[in-house]
Each structure stands twice: as structure tokens, then as C-alpha cells.
Design a protein that fits this description.
There is one protein chain. Helix 1 packs antiparallel against helix 3, helix 1 runs parallel beside helix 4 and helix 3 packs antiparallel against helix 4. The N and C termini lie far apart (about 45 Å). The chain is of the alpha+beta class and about 180 residues long. About 25% of the residues are buried.
């Protein structure tokens, strides 16, 4: 029966990690290196993350500086950024690319906060789906006479507590990200 709980914890942790990565790649008014995580550049026919092709740093809070190791890749990196949904026009001086992020408008902040809530709800749905699968596994163990009725009841209670713990963590992550977006 413990393996069911271990499975649930592992899957729910992965859901939290996925939500964290989603939030990290959201633009919240300030520049972060993780904004480029989802952008790949076609480098000699191979999709390559920008961080593997250049030194990326934050300058002055709202400016990302990308310094390619191979200066000949500047134009391909620029094209990849323009093709992405980042919403920023790259500026290059022949050696580095600068991405200047304008401050977010109130309307854009509200839309981002809505997206944060949507991602949070999707994570909760995933956690509940994991709980449902685990509850079915517990019922199957009972049906196969591997556990007793009391064990099933205790297992369902424990499964619910695990689920509640992860739902609470998701709510905290969503609240934190929404505050982050609305404070800027």
C-alpha cells in the first residue's frame, strides 16, 4: 500500500515542478533568464536553447543581455526571439543582443494573473486525477484481498491528506505569483 502513496507523492511533486517551471517562464515585468527557456535556435539544423549558445544576464532589472559565444549566430538568435511569443524586439550592436522589457500595463497584469490562475487550476486537476488513480489502486488492493476494509479507509484518508497538502502548495504558488505580477 505504501507504494501507492509514494507514487502519488512523486507524481504530485512533478506537477508542482511543472507549475513552477511554467511560472518561471512567464513574463512578470522584470527580466529573468528563464524567460528564454522555451526558445530554441536552429543552430546548424539542431534546435538549441539560447543558454547553450550564449551568456545570458540581466542588466538594470528590465534588460536581458545575450552575448553569443559565436558572433555569427546573432541574426539566428534574433529571428528565434522574434518568432517566439516573448513580445519583445531584440536590439543588437553586432556583439550582444539586448531585450528591453517595457513595464507591464494594468490590463496586461490582469491577463497574466488570469493565466496564473488557469495554470494553477490545471495543476489542481492533475493532482486530483492522480488522487483518483491512486484511490482506484487502493480499491483494487481491497478487491484482491491484499488489504482490509479498515486499511482501505485509512488509505483513502491518507490519500486525501496528501492531495490536500499539494493543493495547498499550488494555492500558495498561485497567490505568490499573482502578487508578484500585480506589485510590479
Amino acid at each position: 500500500m505504501q507504494e501507492v502513496f509514494d507514487y502519488a507523492n512523486e507524481k504530485m511533486e512533478k506537477t508542482l515542478k511543472s507549475l513552477h517551471n511554467e511560472f518561471a517562464s512567464m513574463r512578470a515585468g522584470r527580466a529573468t533568464v528563464s524567460l528564454l527557456d522555451k526558445i530554441s535556435v536552429d543552430y546548424y539544423g539542431v534546435p538549441t536553447p539560447i543558454q547553450q549558445m550564449a551568456a545570458v544576464s540581466v542588466s538594470e532589472g528590465r534588460i536581458l543581455v545575450i552575448q553569443p559565444w559565436d558572433v555569427s549566430t546573432i541574426s539566428t538568435i534574433e529571428k528565434a526571439i522574434q518568432a517566439s511569443d516573448l513580445g519583445v524586439n531584440p536590439q543588437d550592436d553586432g556583439k550582444v543582443i539586448r531585450l528591453i522589457f517595457p513595464p507591464l500595463t494594468e490590463e496586461k497584469r490582469k491577463l497574466l494573473a488570469k493565466d496564473v490562475s488557469k495554470f494553477g487550476e490545471e495543476a489542481k486537476v492533475a493532482v486530483r486525477s492522480i488522487r483518483r488513480d491512486c484511490m482506484e489502486k487502493l480499491k483494487k488492493l481491497k478487491k484482491d484481498s491484499e488489504i482490509t476494509e479498515d486499511d482501505l479507509h485509512d488509505g483513502e484518508d491518507k490519500m486525501q491528506k496528501i492531495t490536500d497538502k499539494f493543493i495547498k502548495k499550488i494555492d500558495e504558488m498561485v497567490d505568490s505569483k499573482e502578487k508578484d505580477i500585480m506589485e510590479i
